[in-house]
Amino acid sequence: MINEVLWIVFALVNFTMVTIIYRIFGKQGLFVWIGMSTVVANIQVAKTIEMFGLTATLGNIIYGTAFLATDILNEKYGKKDAKQAVWLGFFTLISMTIMMQIALQFTPGPDDFAHEALTTLFSFLPRVAIGSLLAYLVSQYFDVWIYAKLKAVFPADKWLWVRNNGSTMISQLLDSLVFCLIAFYGKFPPAVWFEVFMTTYFIKFIVAALDTPFLYIAKKFHR
After folding, report:
1. Could you list the residue ranges that cross the membrane (predicted)?
2. What total number of domains does the chain contain?
3. 121 near 46, Cβ under 8 Å?
């Protein structure tokens, strides 16, 4: 039960930090957050936890905040800025991947204590690394597109929750599908693969639902 409570607190802290950085730094703060969150999420994903009777990765929460940030940009500044933020996050993620792969090739000194830990964190299997990069790019681009479409159909503020939940929950489904297909398909029996896919999406679905109040708060900033 400790993990479940801590997970909810952790989610609230993450979403609160997004609204704070937007409140203080405006649009630029969201761009910084998206770049940072994509990197941190891919570090946290190496840690698995038991929660709600399921095994889940820890990176799902901060990864979900990137979708909240792009939704805020889409809502307040338009699709062009949201797309630019998606590419910023992708470039940040791929830059980190390349730089850390090169860093791991250096021979550690005799007194080094960090090389093994860094190897564990950043020696991604090629399928996992490619799956993560493509899932991010495809799902984030789709999130921007569908949010703009929903905003055109439901433009009033009272439908903000529809735009937010509809775009994020559908795009997170796409994210989970792309990642699990590339990273894990063929590695597990079909039934096990489907369980991994559904578990991954279930956690992301909860995260998407939790971010809605924070979008309403951010909507009031920088009018």
Report:
1. 6-25, 30-46, 52-73, 85-104, 124-148, 169-186, 192-218
2. 1
3. yes
From residue 69, alpha-carbon distances to 24, 118, 127 in Å are 14, 29, 27
CATH number at residue 29: 1.10.1760
How far apart are the C-alpha atoms of 186 and 222, rounded to whole Å? 48
Summarised one tens digit per residue, pLDDT across range 34-50 is 999 999 988 888 788 88
Strands annotated E in 82-206: none
DSSP-assigned letter for residue 55: E
**Single-letter code of the amino acid located at 76:** K
Residue 109 domain-assigned? no
Tell me: the pLDDT tens digits for 50-90?
A: 877 777 778 889 999 999 999 999 999 999 999 999 999 99
CA-to-CA distance for 204 and 131, rounded, in angstroms? 17
